[in-house]
UniProtKB/TrEMBL annotation:
Annotated ranges, domain FAD/NAD(P)-binding: 10-289
Coiled-coil boundaries: none
Gene Ontology MF terms: thioredoxin-disulfide reductase (NADPH) activity
Biased composition (Basic and acidic residues): 330-342
Keywords: Flavoprotein, Oxidoreductase
Pfam families for this protein: Pyr_redox_2 (PF07992)
Protein EC: 1.8.1.9
Keyword Oxidoreductase belongs to the record: yes
Region (Disordered): 320-342
Protein name: Thioredoxin-disulfide reductase
Length: 342
């Protein structure tokens, strides 16, 4: 950003172009609020080779195709989409928020942070994400019905995921990869009472099929085990930098506590998606985004005026309505005209 550039001003700025952020921006834009979506690209959804558990979206839709379709919808409605990485944020004296990116600055009345987390990846050898390496049990367990599956990790979570996978298959290995278990004594007793094969040896090699999917792992003791795929359970790194800059409260695990509509401990700052507690699922994230968008609309909408405002300022004139910016008004008219015969 040059010294002559002015920050772009919006009612709402959504940081993060995953399903939660996209859904929030969809609602705030369609409800008449000037909205920007600032997205650095990538993210967990973009890594998906197939989209699972999203009604109306078929399995052959990749994460990138899903996100690209959503961005196109937003642009049709009038959302401004910026490819940028927001590195800092602050509250201004007038109560608005200033967001600083690598390419520009943004000022907003409401900020929505859908910045998610990064899965902690184990050391190689590893198959490609989506072709034998998976992170979402509820998304991908269905893929491994009656197949040989592994779970990598040594925590309580890893042990429980291994036991949960017995609902789908009778061939489950828990790969410690040379680490000592860190799960509790109770979990140790429980997992050893289930038909889960605990493999202690570290991996020494991997074989892939011609289509790129995992075929087998080789272990340091010379054994080879075949798998269709499995899950890595090494924890998550939550992206909390912007929340910390705005003095938003965090939970001990790095997630951001919110109310039922995504409000954080700081007025005007909302959190949606995987950065908040709960299931990390696309439909869940979209629901959180929708609820945040509606809550923001309830806070920002022009009408109805309160009785105090009417008594102080007088009745609302026809010249004062509609309560939507000229730019979004034009976009809405264009959109509705183009879809009039649909």
């Amino acid at each position: 950003m040059t010294e002559t550039d002015e920050p772009r001003e919006y009612e709402v700025v959504v940081v993060g172009g995953g399903p939660a952020g996209l859904q929030t921006a969809l609602y705030t834009t369609r409800l008449g609020h000037d909205t920007a979506l600032v997205d650095r690209g990538g993210g967990r959804a973009a890594m998906m080779l197939d989209t699972h558990n999203v009604i109306g979206v078929t399995e052959d839709t990749s994460g990138n195709e899903f996100l690209e379709t959503a961005r196109g919808q937003l642009e049709d409605y009038g959302t401004d989409i910026h490819r940028d990485f927001v590195t800092d944020a602050e509250r201004l004296d007038d109560g608005r928020f200033r967001l600083v990116g690598n390419e520009g600055e943004f000022v907003a009345e409401r900020v929505v942070l859908g910045v998610g987390f990064n899965d902690e990846r184990p050391e190689p050898p590893l198959p490609r994400t989506g072709k034998g390496l998976h992170y979402c049990l509820h998304c991908d367990a269905y893929m491994f019905v009656d197949e040989s599956v592994y779970v990598m990790g040594h925590s309580d979570s890893a042990a429980y995921v291994a036991m949960i996978m017995l609902n789908f298959t009778d061939e489950v290995d828990l790969l410690l990869r040379g680490d000592e278990p860190t799960w509790s004594d109770e979990t140790d007793e429980l997992v050893r009472a289930h038909p889960v094969d605990i493999v202690e040896e570290e991996l020494s090699g991997m074989t892939k099929r011609d289509d790129g999917w995992l075929e087998s792992f080789e272990f340091e003791d010379g054994t080879v085990r075949e798998y269709k795929g499995g899950f890595a359970m090494y924890g998550s790194n939550y992206n909390t930098t912007l929340f910390e800059a705005l003095d938003v409260d965090l939970d001990d695990d790095g997630t951001v506590p919110v109310d039922d509509h995504g409000r954080t401990s700081v007025d005007g700052v909302f959190a949606v998606g995987d950065i908040t507690p709960g299931h990390n699922q696309i439909p869940v994230a979209m629901g959180k985004g929708a609820k945040a968008g509606i809550a923001i609309h309830m806070e920002l909408r022009e009408f109805p005026k309160s009785l105090d405002e009417i008594r102080a300022e007088g009745a609302v004139s026809v010249d004062d309505v509609p309560g939507i910016s000229p730019g979004l008004l034009d976009k809405a008219k264009q959109f509705n005209e183009s879809h009039a015969d649909d």
